[in-house]
Amino acid sequence: MFAAATKSFVKQVGDGGRLVPVPSLSEADKYQPLSLVVKKKRCFLFPRYKFTSTPFTLKDILLGDREISAGISSYQLLNYEDESDVSLYGRRGNHIVNDVGINVTGSDSVAVKASFGVVTKHEVEVSTLLKEITTRKINFDHSLIRQTRSNRKAVLCVVMESIRTTRQCSLSVHAGIRGEAMRFHFMDEQNPKGRDKAIVFPAHTTIAFSIFELFIYLDGAFDLCVTSVSKGGFEREETATFALLYRLRNILFERNRRVMDAISRSQLYLDDLFSDYYDKPLSMTDISLKEGTHIRVNLLNHNIPKGPCILCGMGNFKRETVYGCFQCSVDGQKYVRLHAVPCFDVWHKRMK
After folding, report:
1. pLDDT of residue 271
2. Based on the domain organization, do 311 and 239 belong to the same domain?
């Protein structure tokens, strides 16, 4: 009966599907902010998840004794009173009958009345909690962590908000026959014993809650999944290995792209340099033959081995030459290697 009332409350309040009804009155006090809940998928035939309470809070599974500083704010949400008819031929009606054990002989419907009064909402300060967990680690030796980690279908969650009553509340159920003009037509003279049932529960009872899933990494760090897109769970070793290989692939791809861009730029530079040389008359480019200019020499005659040209040796292919100039120096070297044509003249034209 309590479960049927909390489900009806969540269905009417809505909240975008984030709210979860408390399944049992005996466990209502375990769904408080920062409490831990295990979310488990039933099977492919049941798309809904099953939430199981635990006796632990978020602090219990963290390393260290430091308390969680995130505060909890509360405010009034609404005043809730509900009366509804439930058919005995539906799943919800069967659940109510099995839960409270009322006599349904000669009845086709059940009337459920829930009087929660003013309910309040208590929620964790998310921004403060997100800042704090960046420095905290999960204790993998905790029994709850070990048991949840061993089950791939289970996800550890933390309660972020709860909705509670503020006064003593009542739930009542009556089995009867649905009337045409009235909600129920009660057969007083034929009313068997056990057709009515009611329960009263105390103030500050939690009737609904919402959770954030936890995604726990191999090093003990963890994230709060603040959106429905992100999913919780444990990072698996094979997942971490795949992620590392993927990052390495991206790094190598980026390095290769940068090298190819550099080679392409240097090749374009050389092409532009040589085309500029060949596009001009010889009288303007062949400055090495003019009086007072630097002299082309064969470096082999001075016991200097063949090597890459300082200009065209920067491209895709390391073009080598035996010629150079002793009047020029680069990086402390008292000569430069330059092809006789056209690199020697292009180089000295730039230097000039």
Report:
1. 60
2. no
**HEC readout, the chain:** CHHHHHHHHHHHHCHHHCCEECCCHHHHHHCCCCEEEEEEEEECCEEEEEEEEEEEEHHHHECCCCCCCCCEEEEEEEEEEEEEEEECCCHHHHHHHHHHCCCCCCCCEEEEEEEEEEEEEEEECHHHHHHHHCCCCECCCCHHHHHHHCCCCEEEEEEEEEEEECCCEEEEEEEEECCCCCCCECCHHHCCCCCEEEEEECCCCEEEEEEEEEEECCCCCEEEECCCCCCCEECCHHHHHHHHHHHHHHHHHHHHHHHHHHHHHHHHHHHHHHHHHHCCCHHHHCHHHCCCCCCCEEHHHHCCCCEECCCHHHCCCCCEECEEECCCCECCECCEECCCCCHHHHHHHHHC
Residue 312 within a domain: yes
Domain of 311 in residue numbering reads as 294-336
What was the pLDDT predicted at 337?
87
Residues 151, 226 within the same domain = yes
Classify residue 332: in a domain, yes or no: yes
Q: Are residues 235 and 306 in the same domain?
A: no
Please report, rounded to a whole number, the percentage of residues in the chain having pLDDT higher than 70.
70
Q: What is the pTM of this model?
A: 0.59
- Domain termination site, one of 216, 249, 282: 249
261 pLDDT higher than 50: yes
14/108 same-domain check: yes
Amino acid at site 239: T
- In tens, the pLDDT along 31-90 reads 999 999 999 876 666 557 888 999 999 999 999 888 887 888 989 988 888 877 666 665
Q: Is residue 317 part of a domain?
A: yes
Question: CA-CA distance, 242 to 265, in Å (whole number)?
Answer: 35
What is the residue-averaged pLDDT of the chain?
77
Asked whether residue 349 is domain-assigned, the answer is no
Place of tokens 């039933």: 42
Fill in the DSSP letter of residue 187: -
For the chain, how many structural domains are there in total?
2
